[in-house]
Amino acid sequence: MWILAVCLFMLAQVAVEAGPASEQCMCSQLHHPQEKFCSSDFAFRVEILNGSDSPGPGEEDNGEYYQSYFVYAVRIVEVFKTNLTLVDVRAGDLLDIYNPQKGMCGKTNLYDREARSNDYLLTGYIGESSNGIIYAGITSCNWVRKWINVTDVQLEGMRGSYEWCNCTVYPVSGEMHRNKPARDRFDLETCLYNPVAAHQLKVADCETSSGVCVWDGEASKCTWRYDGQFKRCYDSRLNTLSNEGKAAIASMKDCSLYTGKKRRLCKIKFLKAIKNSA
Ligand SMILES: *[C@@H]1O[C@H](CO)[C@@H](O)[C@H](O)[C@H]1NC(C)=O
Ligand SMILES: *[C@@H]1O[C@H](CO)[C@@H](O)[C@H](O)[C@H]1NC(C)=O
Ligand SMILES: *[C@@H]1O[C@H](CO)[C@@H](O)[C@H](O)[C@H]1NC(C)=O
Ligand SMILES: *[C@@H]1O[C@H](CO)[C@@H](O)[C@H](O)[C@H]1NC(C)=O
Known about the structure:
Blueprint: H1 2-18, H2 33-39, E1 42-54, E2 69-81, E3 94-100, E4 119-128, E5 134-137, E6 144-146, H3 152-161, E7 170-171, E8 192-193, H4 195-201, H5 206-210, E9 213-216, E10 221-224, H6 228-243, H7 245-248, H8 260-277
Parallel strand pairs: 3-5, 7-8
Antiparallel strand pairs: 1-2, 1-4, 2-3, 4-5, 4-6, 9-10
The structure holds 2-acetamido-2-deoxy-beta-D-glucopyranose (4 copies).
């Protein structure tokens, strides 16, 4: 946990220090895939053909050892989103995708020549270099996944159901919910996003894998779309958190989910678990 905290702190520092530079990695906040999709200029499924150090877009390679960019040569497999005026690509086209190396923006380990597949989801920004070259770029803050790890609901989201880009998915840290019973650390009624709690409680992070935040006109607010895989995931998690002490108990306080003998058993179980993990 503290490693994550330190990383977040460092990223926050970078964000502050980077100032108004054109590439900065402001990823101190947690963001849901839908928000990352909405805030990016492009989203492609690609096959990465190779990756190498590179001068900036449109710059001459003057043979200097220090290179400010990494570049991936990719073949486009599917276009989910782009600005056709700026980057007009279709399935089958080749494209260079730039990754700035400064400001902790680097993401240089995507291409693996030994791997069976180098298919990725890449989302990123469309930038303009100082010499006027329009290019596609990614940073460590963008949503980048091995294609095999993109879920069906995320794919469907990019093909259309992530349409409510005016909804906010609220990230909530585990800390803020420390004193709440485990089952109350997630919420259907607002688009609450709590991957930290899911991780701590060792339960599914349904919001990331299958959550789509939609505008509910009747209730006049944004809520998680409660159907299909998300409904199954959410219900099963709630059930686990409500009924099985084992998964729900992240701290002794969580035993207050129960009363009487069950509460005592829960505390004993918790103490045993501590002893076993010591
Ligand atoms: C990367 O692949 C592209 C497309 O096949 C090719 O044009 C380019 O020369 C390759 N670069 C390196 C460094 O191998
Ligand atoms: C695409 O980029 C152009 C030039 O910056 C801009 O005028 C246009 O609004 C953009 N289109 C979309 C759909 O974002
Ligand atoms: C991605 O998928 C592979 C194969 O299904 C799995 O082994 C791996 O744990 C997944 N990685 C992540 C980060 O989900
Ligand atoms: C989102 O957009 C819809 C349709 O344009 C609108 O009715 C709704 O008020 C907007 N919601 C928010 C939270 O801005």
